[in-house]
């Protein structure tokens, strides 16, 4: 008897473009694709959003649907977004150097992250950070992103406890003067813990509807990045909003509300993006072993099938475990299962990249270094 499955390969994406693939919270890698909404088609995943008036501007293509996991996030944490030119990291580099332009980060509180209807598109967004062009250095945000190896770190403002979509945005202006500005965006699902009491109140003029926060005719969107001398540049969209208490130590955290949906299962033995492997059934004979092995392979098949463009490396780890389990089934005295000794493959965040740039805060939180295994 021979079980198993064929791993599915990821479609190769075009070079030069970029995709938000990985979220770090206080320096800890949450796992490639974990809690991140991203396009399903790997061949086009890193392409820009078109048109900018469509609902895909909220969280990117396929961003209307929630992913299984929502990452718990401490009050006023530092969030780091990793952008990759090649979503699965098979080659280094975040974006082509020619794609100069600004960056911004938006936030939206949502009541039901897993509602059947799209909770991403529409009103409720506000900008918590932006970075455009520096007259002092002659560099754009994209230049700094490349120097930072694709990592963009910002500090979370003092927002109330609850579920949020956090949306990093890159605007590439290399063809903007011809009416072809390129927006790259995606969303991470987070649950802010121990935030201050009270409602989130965003003042008029600071709130935004996405799509609708920018227009193709905005000066910061239809901008000639090649003009000399370079005109003064204003990052498009609303101004940055810092909720009351941000950076001043006001707004006492509350411990009452807790995350109930989107939590990683307690018996998850291995994670790839938003898939988790669960313990396989125990057995005491060969027949039970084959049943356990089939359960293992069935779980693995779902891993390969649901792996996002950010990669399937942990599916391969699980497949190897299934193979070792199957190898024990040839013995009539088989018993088990064997202990799973693998671990989720994640990369550490470089210390320099963990520090927010263009920061409105003065307080520096403790950065918890990620371990090699989840």
From TrEMBL:
Task: Keyword check for Signal, yes or no.
Answer: yes
Report one GO cellular component: extracellular region
Q: Where is this region: Disordered?
A: 242-264
**Any idea what this protein is called?**
lytic cellulose monooxygenase (C4-dehydrogenating)
Record's catalysed reaction(s): [(1->4)-beta-D-glucosyl]n+m + reduced acceptor + O2 = 4-dehydro-beta-D-glucosyl-[(1->4)-beta-D-glucosyl]n-1 + [(1->4)-beta-D-glucosyl]m + acceptor + H2O
Keyword entries, A-Z:
Carbohydrate metabolism, Cellulose degradation, Disulfide bond, Polysaccharide degradation, Secreted, Signal
Q: Which InterPro entries match?
A: AA9, AA9_LPMO
Instruction: Tell me its EC number(s), please.
Output: 1.14.99.56
| GO BP annotations listed | cellulose catabolic process
Query: Which co-factor is required?
Result: Cu(2+)
Species: Ustilaginoidea virens (Rice false smut fungus)
The signal sequence is: 1-16
The Auxiliary Activity family 9 catalytic domain is annotated at 17-227
Chief place of localization? secreted
- Lineage, opening ranks: Eukaryota, Fungi, Dikarya, Ascomycota, Pezizomycotina
Family listed:
Belongs to the polysaccharide monooxygenase AA9 family.
Q: What class of enzyme is it?
A: oxidoreductase
Q: Where are the transmembrane segments?
A: none
List where in the cell it is found. Answer: Secreted
* Manganese is among the record's keywords: no
